[in-house]
Amino acid sequence: MFNSTRFAQFLKPIRTTFQSLVHQYQTDKHAKGFSSWNQLVAMMYAQLSGTKSLRQLVEGFNAQSSHHYHLGVKELKRSTLSEANRKRSADVYQALCQQLMAGVNRQLRKELHAFTYLIDSSPIQLLGKGFDWAVQGSRVTGFKLHMQLELSNQVPVCFEITQANIPDITQAREWNLEPGSTYVMDKGYLDYLWWKKLNDQKIQLVCRLKKRAAITVIQSYELDEKAPHILEDQCIEFSGSSQKKRLGQFQMRRVVVKRDDNKGELVLITNDFERSAQEIAHLYKQRWQIELFFKWIKQHLKIKSFIGQNSNAVRIQVLSALIVYLLIKLEQMKNKSAEPLRVTFWRLAHGLFERPIQQSEYFRRKQQREEFKKYQLPLWEAGI
């Protein structure tokens, strides 16, 4: 009986979905023998195998030609893959990511009732020959990956790739945030009018506030002696003349926290008057998880060096990395696995073309043969 490789099993959940998206976006219209599925498998192989160049990718992939038939692919050519990454729209990859994230959302809603999301962005730097087209931002030249991450499961639920010069708050205003949920963000999302809009939509937020922001204290709340790191807990209004005219009587909660590293005070702002000040401070501390997410994908997946040098090829590579991450997380959530994500990733990456079910069957039969041999000699001596 045939058993598929780990790589084929890994790709199985997206094969039908991707083919329907290919038909929808017509990316195989001028394929000439090299299908969009072949391109996706090659890019997923690049992410999992850690290849550093297009030549290395092609040579490594073609070395596994005995597995191509069951993956539904053909031998790669450098020029063909390079042209496909350069010319074929990245929209089909983006749509696949969005469908995977929608699947994550459906699974989360079966398990959770209250959601907390972390919002942030991370730069994708593009330097060197061939990246002259990249846009200069405030931090790097290249792209930005904007992300919403569900806190409890560390799973992306919404994303966007923009030019590096697009401010975080500009992208955040484009998102349709979810009423009843809590969003935790950094100072890059400071916008009083946007906060008021979220408040009107019953969306809770926790953000950093400038220390010198013009405010009027409406009420100071009593502090808990068991939480000495909470220095202030107040109900405030923004008192700048232009702000007050635009915002009206818009009240928020200001929490001042003493940092653990003695680097001064952290001023937080929220429209949540139900949680304690300690809970607000802890929520903002959890924002670090999205930084760890960006660090993880940059360490384990290929979004720091690129095998293509035009905008479309870079987008496809970044989207391929997100697809790999989402598939691993979905598999972990489905199996309720508690092992670290890096262990799951390493097992897959170092055994792409193993056949785990077939190997287990081999060891079972080997054990049966050894047990049979133990009885052969006594039966022969007995003359049976």
By secondary-structure content and strand pairing, the structural class works out as alpha+beta
> Which overall shape is indicated by the principal axes computed on the Cα atoms?
globular
Strand content: 15-25%
Largest sheet: 10 strands, mixed
Please compute the radius of gyration using only Cα atoms. 26 Å
> pLDDT under 50 segments (min length 5)?
none
Q: Give the proportion of residues in helices.
A: 40-55%
Order of helices and strands: HHHHHHEEEEHEHEEEHEEHHHHH
Total DSSP E strands: 10
Count of separate DSSP helical elements: 14
N-to-C CA distance: 34 Å
Features:
10-stranded mixed β-sheet, 384 residues, 10 strands, alpha+beta
Summarize the helices and strands and which ones pair or pack.
Elements: H1 6-25, H2 36-49, H3 54-62, H4 68-71, H5 78-87, H6 91-111, E1 116-125, E2 135-136, E3 141-150, E4 155-163, H7 168-174, E5 182-184, H8 192-200, E6 204-208, E7 215-220, E8 230-238, H9 241-247, E9 251-258, E10 265-270, H10 277-285, H11 288-300, H12 311-335, H13 341-349, H14 356-381
Helix pairs in contact: 1-2, 1-6, 2-12, 5-12, 6-12
How would you portray this structure in words?
By secondary structure, the protein is of the alpha+beta class. The chain has 14 helices and 10 strands. It has helices at 6-25, 36-49, 54-62, 68-71, 78-87, 91-111, 168-174, 192-200, 241-247, 277-285, 288-300, 311-335, 341-349, 356-381, and strands at 116-125, 135-136, 141-150, 155-163, 182-184, 204-208, 215-220, 230-238, 251-258, 265-270. Strands 1, 2, 3, 4, 5, 6, 7, 8, 9 and 10 form a 10-stranded mixed beta sheet that branches. Strand 5 (182-184), helix 8 and strand 6 (204-208) form a beta-alpha-beta unit. Helix 1 (6-25) packs across helix 2, helix 1 (6-25) crosses helix 6 (91-111) and helix 2 (36-49) crosses helix 12 (311-335). The longest helix has 26 residues, at 356-381. The chain starts with 5 loop residues before the first helix and ends with a helix.
